[in-house]
Write a structure and sequence with these properties.
By secondary structure, the chain is an alpha+beta fold. Helices cover about 50% and strands about 15% of the residues. It has 24 helices and 25 strands. The strands form six sheets. The chain has a six-stranded antiparallel beta sheet with strand order 3-2-4-9-6-7, with helices on one face. The protein has a six-stranded antiparallel beta sheet with strand order 12-11-16-15-14-13. Helix 1 packs antiparallel against helix 3 (about 190-220), helix 16 packs antiparallel against helix 19 (about 645-675) and helix 17 runs antiparallel to helix 18. The longest helix is centred in the middle third of the chain and has 51 residues, at about 380-430. It is elongated and about 165 Å long.
């Protein structure tokens, strides 16, 4: 369709130009071939300034103020009518005419006028017409741009006729007469007038069509500003034709107001500004290789806008005074257009030659129009030049657009071939790739395109008819929590923003096992459209072999780690550490299998896991310590989200995973030390405490801190068996607290001593044995404890308890003054575990504060443990179990 439109434009231009030439060059048909058969211009008149003629003046030819002139321009000059403002009267004697019907055309006029066509032999039968309303005062005049045709009958050649014309203002162009009155045989003038109107309407309609056409091109390609400028030129031509022809004259006979005339004049003035300015803008937008002074163009545009604004606001008489400025402005822009197009031709820009030719045609027709007006044969042919220019330039733009369209079409075909090729490749890939690939739509069904392997992962299902979440939940072995969360999570994420996806996509299933024990891994990728997740791309991989290899590698690493850890210990110490871990694991299993539990259940689990983690760390079992740390984090997270029963199920699963570590430890111990019998393992309490102290220190990175001394004193062998076991349970927590808090390096008061020391002293008091634990670190910072307790609402800010009461808050669950959380401290579990484990065997725990006299806020302290003694022991040894 675009190519047909391109070929249609020059045909329309040729048609319009041919119609104009034919109408302009062909004479009107008449009854005979005499001179009177042609159009005759009345170019001689009697001129009377500042006075009006009446019907009685038709035969009055004498007088001082009445002058006989030649052509009108000479008559006006001789009459002195080229300056000032005032009314004028014309008396046109008609030549001798042959009998017959005649027409007289008056106008178009730029002033209000009234006229009589008077037969001298019968003045009473004179024909009267008026254009606007005549008045001698400028403010009272109602001008109207129009023309009138009078028809009359000539009886014989001796009959004489006279045309009397009164004009309100002779200072307008050519004394108020743009064209002299014309006489011709009927219907010559009517035919010419109709033909002229037809051509004007045809040209205006063509420009309206071109205006819409160019504007639609601009809408389709907003970067093509040349089309917009050409549309502005079309609008200028439409305004020019509408103003010059004054389309209101076809509906208004005698106006009651001057607004039709004012609108017509304003439209013509606007066209004088916008036509050359739009032409220059068109050239700039079309020929982009030509360099031009941007500042001058912007200033010219601004000046044009100012002129248009003045024209719209001010009355027409102001613009009449500014008409020379307007003409100079238009001429300057026309000169800029010629210079610009000359540079474009020099640079051999595409279409520049045709543009130069069309501009020359416009200038030539404009010059011809001026010449025709000077010889009293004025015809509005400059508008046809503009029409030709627009059609030729639209041909340039259309050709460019057609070339661009053809290139785009060619590129589209190439892209389509490439798309078809890549589509075939993608289909081939999807058919043979060993991974399941597909997209999940908002209804949670798979899209139409997915790999064939997806059917292999979920056999026995029609992939297009079942929801993907149902496919996973029904066919894969997943826990109840994931089974309930996965469908709602997936359904919620599709249609939400990508930020929501980033925050919640971890809730989607990452790994699962099939019923035939294959391990499947899932990867989820959002397909974002307009900031929202429109679909989800999912990939499914069989990672059974990979997981088996990883598990084997992990088992080997774990086994190697156990070899290193237990090879450093003798048989008794290794059996004792293993026995403790087994006991903690059994406690976890018991907590997970409880039928009833209260809100403190999670706290008990955390204490056992934290104690077990400390023992694993002091033995050097880093993988087991890391697994216990992860499970500890999981318990803390689940305690706020899941119910107790669901937490128990999760703990049971965790214990099953931990038992794999114990199986490895048992196997390594059997290889190193032979058969395992933890009931026969016996070791002194002092040796166990010493061994755990040094093992814990060796497995911690304490940079910048010297190794502390451990001083054990007193009858520790008199501890009862439960008391001994509780001490072993809390020993690692006490050491960790000293390492991380008491001996932590800190500038200022309370700094650590040169040689850190930890003391455990036993005192016998009858049936009770008192243990005193202390270190020579910086002590407890009471102000920090008070602020933390106030923050946790354990203390009221207005309370002022004793330092011992504040220090006792370190045994509160979740209480910790450490700013950064580490694997060993910072969660408020260690000291809570100390108090809880000792209380379970009826051991009382106290904290004693030593007063200080400095302002540091640090206070040395002692932990006092009072528990039952066992005096029946024959030797200072204990059963490791």
């Amino acid at each position: 369709m675009l190519n047909r439109m391109v070929s249609f434009q020059p045909m329309m231009a040729i048609f319009l130009l041919s119609s104009f030439v034919i109408s302009f060059t062909t004479p009107a048909k008449a009854a005979d071939e005499s001179m009177n058969a042609h159009v005759y211009a009345l170019d001689k008149a009697l001129v009377l300034r500042n006075q009006n003629l009446t019907l009685a003046d038709a035969e009055w030819v004498e007088g001082d103020k009445l002058q006989l002139s030649g052509i009108l321009r000479q008559a006006l000059h001789e009459a002195g009518l080229t300056q000032g403002r005032g009314s004028v009267a014309y008396k046109f004697p008609l030549p001798a005419l042959d009998p017959g019907h005649y027409e007289l055309k008056l106008g178009p006029l730029a002033s209000a006028a009234e006229a009589w066509l008077v037969p001298l032999d019968d003045p009473a039968s004179a024909q009267f017409t008026q254009i606007g309303k005549v008045a001698t005062a400028y403010q009272e005049e109602i001008p109207f741009m129009a023309h009138r045709i009078l028809r009359f009958w000539v009886k014989d050649r001796t009959q004489r006729w006279t045309l009397l014309v009164n004009l309100s203002n002779e200072t307008r162009y050519r004394g108020g007469l743009w064209e002299p009155p014309q006489v011709s045989r009927a219907p010559t003038l009517s035919t010419l007038e109709h033909r002229r109107q037809l051509l004007n309407f045809l040209g205006t309609g063509a420009m309206l069509i071109m205006l819409m056409y160019q504007f639609l091109i601009f809408i389709r390609r907003t970067d093509d500003r040349g089309a917009l400028a050409l549309a502005a030129i079309c609008l200028s031509i439409i305004l020019r034709n509408a103003g010059y022809e004054n389309f209101f004259q076809d509906w208004i006979e005698v106006p009651d107001t001057s607004w039709p005339h004012d609108i017509a004049i304003k439209m013509e003035y606007i066209a004088i500004v916008t036509a050359p300015l739009s032409c220059l803008a068109f050239l700039i937008a079309t020929f982009r290789r030509v360099k031009y002074p941007t500042l001058i163009f912007r200033m010219g545009t601004l000046a044009g806008l100012v002129i248009i604004a003045i024209n719209l606001v001010a009355p027409p008489r102001i613009m009449e005074q500014l008409l020379p400025v307007l003409q100079i402005y238009a001429a300057g822009l026309a000169l800029c257009c010629l210079v610009f197009i000359a540079k474009a031709v020099q640079l051999k820009e595409e279409g520049s030659t045709l543009t130069l030719l069309s501009l020359c045609i416009v200038l030539m027709l404009g010059s011809l129009e001026v010449y025709l007006f000077t010889i009293n044969k004025g015809v509005n042919i400059s508008a046809f030049g503009a029409v030709i220019f627009v059609f030729l330039q639209s041909q340039v733009l259309a050709r460019r657009f057609a070339d661009a369209f053809n290139r785009a079409e060619h590129l589209s075909r190439e892209l389509q071939l490439e798309v078809d090729k890549q589509t075939w490749q993608i289909r081939h890939i999807l058919r043979h790739i060993p991974q399941g690939i597909g997209t999940i739509k908002q209804d949670l069904h798979l899209g139409q395109t997915y790999s064939d392997s997806m059917r292999n992962f979920f056999p026995g299902h029609t992939m297009d008819t079942i929801r993907f979440d149902k496919l996973i939940c029904n066919d894969l072995l997943i826990d109840d929590n994931s089974r309930s969360l996965f469908p709602s999570t997936l359904e919620t994420l599709i249609g939400e923003s990508d930020l929501t996806w980033n925050a919640n996509s971890h809730l989607l299933i990452q790994e699962a096992r099939t019923r035939d024990n294959r391990a499947l891994a899932f990867d989820w990728y959002p397909i974002v459209k307009d900031g929202q997740v429109d679909e989800v791309l999912v990939t499914v991989r069989d990672v059974s072999e990979l997981k088996n290899l990883r598990q084997k590698n992990f088992n080997l690493d774990r086994e190697f780690e156990c070899y290193i850890a237990f090879s450093k210990l003798d048989r008794d110490h290794a059996m004792q550490g293993y026995a403790q871990l087994i006991r903690y694991c059994m406690e976890c299993r018991a907590l997970g299998s409880m039928t009833e539990a209260d809100s403190g259940w999670s706290r008990q689990v955390l204490i056992v896991l934290h104690t077990m983690k400390g023992n694993a760390r002091q033995l050097g079992l880093k993988s087991l310590a890391a697994a216990l740390h992860n499970e500890e984090q999981a318990v803390m997270s689940r305690s706020t989200k899941l119910r107790i029963r669901e937490q128990m199920l999760s703990l049971t699963s965790a214990v099953q995973r931990l038992e794999e570590h114990f199986d490895t430890m048992k196997s390594v111990l059997e290889r190193i030390h032979g058969s395992i019998d933890i009931r026969k393992s016996s070791i002194s309490i002092e040796e166990i405490l010493n061994q755990q102290f040094h093992a814990l220190w060796n497995n911690q990175e304490r940079l910048g801190m010297p190794r502390p001394n451990l001083e054990l004193s007193g009858p520790l062998h008199l501890l009862s068996l439960p008391y001994q076991q509780a001490l072993l349970d809390v020993w690692l927590h006490l050491l960790t607290n000293s390492f991380d808090h008491g001996f932590a390096a800190q500038d200022g008061p309370g700094n650590v001593h040169a040689k850190p020391t930890i003391q455990l002293h036993a005192e016998s008091h009858g049936s009770f044995l008192r243990l005193i634990y202390a270190d020579n670190g910086r002590g407890i910072h009471i102000p920090t404890l008070r602020d933390k307790a106030t923050q946790l609402k354990l203390l009221d800010a207005r309370d002022n308890p004793a330092p011992e009461a504040i220090a006792a808050l370190i045994f509160s669950p979740g209480f910790s003054t450490r700013a950064n959380v580490s694997e060993s401290s910072g969660r408020g579990i260690g000291m809570d575990a100390v108090k809880t484990l000792l209380a379970a065997v009826q051991v009382e725990l106290e904290i004693h504060i030593t007063p200080t006299f400095d302002d540091s806020g640090f206070h040395p302290f002692q932990l006092i443990m009072n528990g039952p003694a066992n005096r029946s022991l024959a030797s200072p040894t204990i059963n490791a179990a």
